[in-house]
């Protein structure tokens, strides 16, 4: 999917909105609202495991918060119902974790040529921390005090960093020639846990989300206070290239030096068994709005021309 397709999707959504927002009855009240809101809740990834993956990955939930600004236009379509659109922009920050367990199997040799069959198990948590900006174009509905918004939101992560924590690791080296297991020893490989390291992030460059918000609004003259529950999920993400996707999460080097028979333990990437991460967030939005109400009334007044013919297309 290319960026041109995103433009087409947004353009189509604007066309779909136009009958509701620009052709509402001109004889009924219309309302414009400027609002500022704060959002807080949780965010995560819904991971997809790679084919033949040796690990199991599940969502881990992190916090998110932010600020948004919005312009909303409503047109009355009944005694209590209003319909329109909301154009907004926001800024926030949050953490999106992945959790899981992994088993790696590989074979090494020592400096005497002995075969060493390794089984390495581990539990891990990977956290992506990032700022984010977003823009949205939502279909906005209001029924008395109940509000409902739904539509696309484009989100761009910024200043991302990643950490990997291995909470438990067991390195089992089996010598088939001697039928001996050596577990978590320096001479065959050992990782002190909990182990944490920061590393470059390769999170998605941007996300196209579907957002939904529902809540209640209290209006006081031209002012309003509102609370909404929100949820949004990525329908498409621009994936960053995956590197080092064939290496084990915890690797052990062959033992080649008799004077220093301690193998090097290396830490790989969770990307070796995750092919996709679908972004999801949810929470509560609270906002203050200033409403500008105005009534547009078109009056038809026929007028005659110089020949006393009435022009029925002439509006006053």
Short summary:
This protein is mainly beta.
Features:
single chain, 316 residues, mainly beta, 8-stranded antiparallel barrel, 1 helix, 6% helix, rod-shaped, disordered C terminus
Mind explaining what this structure looks like?
- This protein is mainly beta and 316 residues long.
- It contains one helix and 13 strands.
- The strands form two sheets. Strands 1-3-4-5-6-9-10-13 form an eight-stranded antiparallel beta barrel. The protein has a two-stranded antiparallel sheet with strand order 11-12.
- β4 (81-109) and β5 (115-143) form a beta hairpin.
- It is rod-shaped and about 90 Å long.
- The two termini are 50 Å apart.
- The model is unreliable at 18-27, 295-302 and 312-316 (pLDDT under 50).
The overall pLDDT, averaged over residues, is 84
Count of helical segments? 1
Radius of gyration: 29 Å
Largest sheet: 8 strands, antiparallel, barrel
Question: What general outline do the C-alpha atoms trace?
Answer: rod-shaped
> What is the end-to-end distance?
50 Å
Task: List the strand order in the largest sheet.
Answer: 1-3-4-5-6-9-10-13
Number of strands: 13
How do the strands and helices of this protein lay out in sequence?
Blueprint: H1 3-21, E1 29-49, E2 55-59, E3 62-76, E4 81-109, E5 115-143, E6 146-175, E7 180-183, E8 195-199, E9 207-220, E10 223-237, E11 250-252, E12 265-267, E13 274-295
Antiparallel strand pairs: 1-3, 1-13, 2-4, 3-4, 4-5, 5-6, 6-7, 6-8, 6-9, 9-10, 10-13, 11-12
């Amino acid at each position: 999917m290319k960026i041109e397709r995103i433009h087409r999707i947004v353009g189509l959504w604007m066309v779909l909105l136009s009958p509701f927002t620009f052709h509402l009855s001109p004889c009924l009240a219309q309302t414009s609202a400027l609002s500022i809101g704060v959002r807080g809740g949780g965010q995560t990834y819904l991971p997809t495991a790679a084919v033949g993956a040796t690990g199991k990955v599940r969502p881990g939930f992190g916090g998110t918060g932010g600020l948004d600004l919005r312009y909303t236009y409503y047109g009355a379509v009944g005694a209590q119902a209003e319909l329109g659109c909301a154009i907004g922009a926001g800024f926030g920050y949050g953490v999106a974790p992945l959790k899981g367990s992994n088993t790696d199997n590989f074979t090494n040799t020592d400096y005497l040529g002995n075969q060493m069959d390794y089984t390495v198990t581990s539990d891990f948590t990977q956290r992506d921390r990032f700022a984010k900006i977003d823009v949205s174009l939502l279909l906005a509905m209001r029924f008395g005090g109940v509000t409902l918004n739904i539509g696309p939101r484009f989100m761009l992560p910024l200043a991302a960093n990643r950490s990997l924590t291995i909470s438990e690791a067991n390195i089992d080296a089996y010598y088939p020639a001697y039928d001996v297991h050596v577990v978590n020893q320096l001479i065959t490989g050992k990782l002190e846990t909990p182990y944490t390291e920061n590393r470059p992030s390769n999170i998605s460059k941007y996300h196209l989300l579907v957002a939904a918000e529902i809540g209640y609004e209290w209006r006081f003259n031209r002012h309003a206070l509102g609370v909404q529950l929100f949820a949004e999920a990525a329908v498409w993400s621009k994936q960053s290239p995956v590197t080092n996707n064939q290496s084990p999460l915890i690797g052990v080097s062959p033992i080649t030096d008799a004077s220093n028979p301690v193998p090097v333990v290396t830490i790989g990437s969770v990307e070796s068994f995750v092919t996709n991460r679908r972004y999801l967030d949810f929470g509560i939005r609270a906002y203050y709005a200033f409403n500008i109400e105005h009534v547009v009334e078109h009056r038809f007044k026929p007028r005659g021309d110089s020949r006393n013919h009435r022009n029925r297309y002439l509006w006053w």
